[in-house]
Amino acid sequence: xxxxxxxxxxxxxxxxxxxxxxxxPLAHPAYVWREHVLTAARAFEPLPLAMLQGMDAQxxxxxxxxxxxxxxxxxxxxxMWGARGTGKSALVKSAxxxxxxxxxxxxxxxxxTLHLDQLPELFAAIAKVPRAFAIFLDDLxxxxxxxxxxxxxxxxxGAEARxxxxxxxxxxxxxxxxxxxxxxxxxxxxxxxxxxxxLALADRFGLSLGFHAIDQDTYVExxxxxxxxxxxxxxxAEAINWATRRGSRSGRVAWQxxxxxxxxxxxxx
Length: 269
Fold this sequence. Notes:
- The chain folds into two domains: 30-211, Rossmann fold (3-Layer(aba) Sandwich); 216-264.
- The chain contains ten helices and seven strands.
- It has helices at residues 2-15, 56-70, 88-101, 119-126, 149-155, 182-187, 191-199, 216-229, 236-246, 251-264; strands spanning 30-34, 37-40, 78-82, 106-111, 132-137, 166-172, 207-211.
- Keywords: ATP-binding, Nucleotide-binding.
- This is ATP-binding protein.
- Pfam families: DUF815 (PF05673).
């Protein structure tokens, strides 16, 4: 009977193996918070900060804020919003790596935005760690103001607010994280209350950085910077044609062009 129970237990463990052990929060430059476990990020190799062009003001503000956080000084939660492909996510990773290179005691933790209810557990896991953490929520957005109330409490005013050694870095295509539904506002008993509720989450971020669509000259300069960093010869007309076929100009499109250029020249990036 005991042997049969042991075999059943072993079979169940194979079907649902225990979660991996948590990574040492002092040992790695970047982590991923997934399924209640802090794991080291594989191959954390962001682009050098100098390669991200067309966002000097945003870069300087974010690096300064992360530097203060790494030194244990007052720092803001950050909302980075704007057009898709403008380098918001790339800047987060590159800025953290830059502060680390300058000796800053800060690590990046990327949290899955579909499981925001797990954030209090993450906060508890890192609250007493002698290190600063930039918690990265990528491409965040809510369909209704009510969906965002739990995160609002975590940012400010709630019983389980994020700890002093952690700040949130959030990227979104929406300036207010929630669609401004004018029809809903018009039908509300008090339209002002609806508007205030939709803005309440964005107001929790002390630093809000906008990223806007770039012009053609800036796009070419971004592509040129990428190409020169990898020893590639840029053809501006070809780079512009690449963007035209995709219907947009952005840092992401510039990078995709350079990837294609490197491939055609038999080079790795």
